[in-house]
Amino acid sequence: MKGTDKMLSLPIPLTVAVMPFLPSTKQDAIAAHKKGHEVIIHMPMEPIRGKKEWLGPKAITTDLSDEEINNRLEQAIQEIPHAIGMNNHMGSKVTADERIVRLILSACKKHGLFYLDSKTNPNSVVPKIGKELGVPIIENQLFFDDVYTVSHISKQAQLLIKKIQDKPIMVAIGHVGAPGEITSRIIETSIPKIREHADFIFLSDLALSPPSVSK
């Protein structure tokens, strides 16, 4: 996918979310692991708006039975080598649905995975259900490339630099594919400035041993 090689070559620790059931799935997961990055499952989930065919194969949708959702989750987990967590691709409809979120996080608990809530819906029930089930939950705070333009991605990088001066922890998501080469280039040029204020760490560092924060 466009920008994948450049993203994986960034000189920082990355948590790489790999979409299951694609021709490049295993190859991308193995490549990320070999580069020293960690891997999570980028599980496609139904949005409030948008077409289901945008999601890719075997997405989690609200019309599926519990059994089918569990089957798809198990297949995705088995599909991706080295995965230690999961997050949602799109999913604004699914992450507000308690029935489905409970199934997703139960699968994560069964396999010892943490969960990154991409926060495509501010009314997500992921934090609530995660706390109930004892699954480590991390919440995204910024998308670099929710708009695929150089000006927007640059603006988001500047916003990240501003926010890390006030917040002890920031989680940000960028993509390969359509914006991939732009996003990777802007992240690379932003690294020195970000390092003036923060360290780059893996998501698992937050999920499994959160850093202490002085108040």
From TrEMBL:
Organism: Bacillus mycoides
InterPro entries listed in its UniProt record: Divergent_DAC (IPR006837), Glyco_hydro/deAcase_b/a-brl (IPR011330)
Domain of life per record: Bacteria
GO biological process, one term: carbohydrate metabolic process
Protein name: Divergent polysaccharide deacetylase family protein
PANTHER family linked: DIVERGENT POLYSACCHARIDE DEACETYLASE SUPERFAMILY, UNCHARACTERIZED YIBQ-RELATED
